[in-house]
Amino acid sequence: MIPRQLQVLTTASKMKSRTVILIAAFCATTVARPSSLTPRETCPAGSNFPSDAISPYMLVPISKSEPDKAFGGVSTGIVTPGDKCTIVDLNVSDYIDGEPTLLKICNLYFALPSAEQASPHTLEFSGPGHFTFTGYLTGFGADDSTTYNKQPLLGPSPPFPPPVIVPGSTYTIATLPCGILPGSGGQTVSGALCSSDTSMEWYQTGPDGDGSCPLGFFVVVS
């Protein structure tokens, strides 16, 4: 789903900043992955994320056929052809390791291993793999009350998202300056993943995979 155009003050604040970073727009450009993302032996290339990679803090489904239904936050995202989408929420900190995020690069990835590589976590996939990434304005995310008719304010979407996304690879969704002003306290960034022809359910893991290959959205700040 896409966004704008996917401090060490104390130990606690540093940990917080590492749990909250995504990308102010799932704006996409095709660029080389950071050299730190070396392939795992048994996982798709590009999914060996560093331990401080950021995963979403909330996934929120919405449905075109049930436009006023609020599904609330979930751990397993869902996309169905022409109907259900999943909104992905992350927080981008204004400082990373004591340095302003403003000057750093946010790299948004979607890791989609095979179902076998994702086991024991949920990954169901059916269809040719055409997806759209729709971005919301920075600072506007989904919550438990979000519905299809009550979405965050729209922002720019990526001009060149991956044309096809299928299991067995890690995809670059966006690479761009993080652009979060120092002193802002960080920003919520959010985007929606939809499809016209593909069904998918995935359990969002942490960057180490939580017992499997990493699965879902991740941001690496470089």
Task: Describe the protein's topology.
Blueprint: H1 11-18, E1 58-63, E2 76-79, E3 84-92, E4 95-96, E5 99-100, E6 105-112, H2 115-118, E7 123-126, E8 131-135, E9 169-177, E10 187-195, E11 199-203, E12 216-221
Antiparallel strand pairs: 1-3, 2-11, 3-10, 4-5, 6-9, 6-12, 7-11, 8-10
How would you concisely characterize the structure shown here?
The protein is built from 2 helices and 12 strands. It has helices at 11-18, 115-118, and strands at 58-63, 76-79, 84-92, 95-96, 99-100, 105-112, 123-126, 131-135, 169-177, 187-195, 199-203, 216-221.
- β-strand number: 12
Helical content band: under 10%
Order of H and E elements:
HEEEEEEHEEEEEE
Flag low-confidence runs.
Answer: 1-39
Question: What distance separates the N and C termini?
Answer: 22 Å
Rg over C-alpha atoms, rounded to the nearest angstrom: 16 Å
Quickly count the helices: 2
Q: What can be said about the biggest beta sheet? A: 4 strands, antiparallel
In one word, what is the shape?
A: globular
Which sequence of strands runs across the widest sheet?
1-3-10-8
Q: What quaternary form is this? A: single chain
Global structural class: mainly beta
- Percent range for β-strand residues: 25-35%
Protein name: Ubiquitin 3 binding protein But2 C-terminal domain-containing protein
InterPro entries: Ubiquitin3-bd_protein_But2_C
Organism: Clohesyomyces aquaticus
